[in-house]
Automatic annotation (TrEMBL):
Family: Belongs to the DEAD box helicase family.
UniProt GO MF annotations: helicase activity
Basic residues biased stretches: 413-422
Matches recorded under CDD domains: DEADc, SF2_C_DEAD
Name assigned to this protein: DEAD/DEAH box helicase
Lineage: Bacteria, Pseudomonadati, Pseudomonadota, Alphaproteobacteria, Sphingomonadales
Compositionally biased tracts (Basic and acidic residues): 384-394, 401-412
Superkingdom of origin: Bacteria
Sequence ranges assigned to domain DEAD-box RNA helicase Q in this UniProt record: 1-29
Gene3D superfamilies noted in UniProt: P-loop containing nucleotide triphosphate hydrolases
């Protein structure tokens, strides 16, 4: 299946090609033809599935015909947060570069002057957060009666944030004859109700790739004592081949403290949470996207849905209180086919939350165990025997031995090591035979370890929860 099969215009196909996409994702393949046929749509999909392009691309072609009028946007996209709105706007610019369409972004926390000016001149696509839109509507600065197309994105998050009454108000102000699309990662009853009320005979598309079962994400839970979370995080940041990481915490104060601590420890980290003003949030995000910092400590509200390329790791410093957030958090990695690792710290106080996560996803998350560690751990018995040798040299820390230029190879080895893990019995026998005739890796020499059981050498603080 190619984008050309979906009925998009040549101008769009060129923009898609320039974006480097060769094949539509599952949701795009289903949604694009339906939207082009002016059907209403319910998309049950998370970010990371290509859902933004699944509505932005056909919208551009649908909007290509028709005229702009002052104060009357022709289409409206509602987003729960400013960051998501800004991200969808970026998508519009990227895919709509060969079209003459005007777009305006209405979000809180930024100067209103330019937004009002754009509205005055007439816009084809208005991307807004409900709060700012309501504000302008109530002040008579915007008319919604010319809006033929509505997208409600991240509806379940809108629900969490208390936006449903605003959305109902806005829907009531739109013309009855219009096309409506609703996207949501989950469909709790209030969202079903909203869909029933405001969509007519919608096509329902559900993407199979839930973040919890995304094969590109390797997820672990790490049992720890609350007071050991920081050390555990630090150890993993240093030893799990972290390229870029987002660390989620449940409280804003934890986000702030953790970031300070990481900076003190010499990490390049930044923070993003709901208490920051818009420009600082965007600035911090830009620092992360540009690689100025490679670690972002974040709260859920600020980070939901962010599309940042190449995030290698997600850490849940706390298990999220809402199980849906777990799915969203770990979905920040393993995006668009890239591999990612997600670690969730589970202290006593997180026990109930993790049980809820596992209930929601229908999946027991693997306990991070010895076989999952990416570096070789210093072996006390080896150390002792090296000490006994009388060459007078200090015993070396084995995990620091890897030369920098061997990193790629080391990763390859680790990957192989990991893909060989938990072999089926016949494979295990075969491997044992093979391992006799070649240089043996330390982890292959060991007895199999039950998940969560840690019977080898380990950094001291990892004793807890693995012992
Ligand atoms: P989304 O689910 O909309 O947040 O998109 C996730 C990521 O996938 C974004 O970085 C998109 O640029 C990218 N993407 C969207 N569609 C495709 C596609 N057909 N092929 C490759 N990447 C895509």
């Amino acid at each position: 299946m190619t984008f050309a099969d979906l009925g998009l215009s040549p101008e769009l196909l060129k923009a898609v090609d320039d974006a480097g996409y060769t094949e539509p994702t599952a949701i795009q393949a289903e949604a694009i033809p339906a939207v082009l046929m002016m059907k209403d749509l319910i998309g049950i999909a998370q970010t990371g599935t290509g859902k933004t392009a699944s509505f932005v691309l056909p919208m551009i072609d649908v909007m290509a015909a028709g005229r702009r009028r002052a104060l009357m946007p022709r289409s409206l996209i509602l987003e729960p947060t400013r960051e998501l709105a800004a991200q969808v706007a970026e998508n519009f610019e990227k895919y709509g570069k060969n079209h003459d369409l005007k777009m305006a972004l209405l979000i809180g926390g930024v100067q209103m002057g330019d937004q009002l000016k754009a509205l005055d001149e007439g816009v084809d696509v208005l991307i807004a957060t409900p709060g700012r839109l309501m504000d302008l509507f109530e002040r008579g600065k915007i008319l919604l009666s010319g809006c033929e197309l509505l997208v409600i994105d991240e509806a379940d998050r809108m629900l969490d944030m208390g936006f449903i009454p605003d959305i109902e108000f806005i829907c009531d102000k739109l013309p009855e004859t219009r096309q409506t699309m609703l996207f949501s990662a989950t469909m709790p009853p209030p969202i079903e109700k909203l869909a029933k009320k405001f969509l007519s005979n919608p096509k329902r598309i559900e993407t199979t790739r839930a973040a919890s079962t995304n094969k590109d994400i390797t997820a672990f839970k790490v049992p720890v004592k609350a007071r050991q979370k920081r050390d555990t995080l630090k150890w993993l940041l240093q030893n799990d081949q972290v390229e870029t990481a987002i660390i989620f915490a449940n409280r804003k104060t934890t986000v702030r403290d953790l970031n300070k601590q990481l900076q003190r420890d010499g990490f390049r980290s930044g923070e993003i949470h709901g208490d920051m003003d818009q420009s600082s949030r965007l600035k911090e995000l830009d620092r992360f996207k540009s690689g100025d910092v490679n670690i972002l400590v974040a709260s859920d509200v600020a980070a939901r849905g962010l599309d940042i390329k190449g995030v290698s790791h997600v850490f849940n410093f706390d298990t999220p209180w809402h199980p849906d957030d777990y799915v969203h958090r770990i979905g920040r990695t393993g995006r668009a086919g890239a591999k990612g690792r997600a670690f969730t710290f589970v202290a006593d106080e997180d026990a109930e939350a993790i049980a809820n996560v596992e209930k929601l996803t229908g999946n027991k998350i693997a306990v991070f165990g010895k076989d999952d560690v990416r570096v070789e751990l210093a072996d006390p018995s080896a150390k002792a025997s090296e000490d006994e040798q009388s060459d007078g040299k200090k015993p070396r820390n084995r995990r620091k031995e890897r030369p920098d230029d061997a990193e790629g190879e080391a990763k390859e080895k680790t990957k192989k090591g990991r893909s060989q893990r938990k072999p089926k019995p016949d494979e295990a026998t075969q491997r044992n035979a093979q391992s006799k005739s070649r240089s043996r890796r330390r982890d292959e020499d060991d007895e199999p370890t039950a998940p969560g059981e840690w019977n080898g050498p380990k950094p001291g603080f990892l004793d807890i929860g693995f012992g």
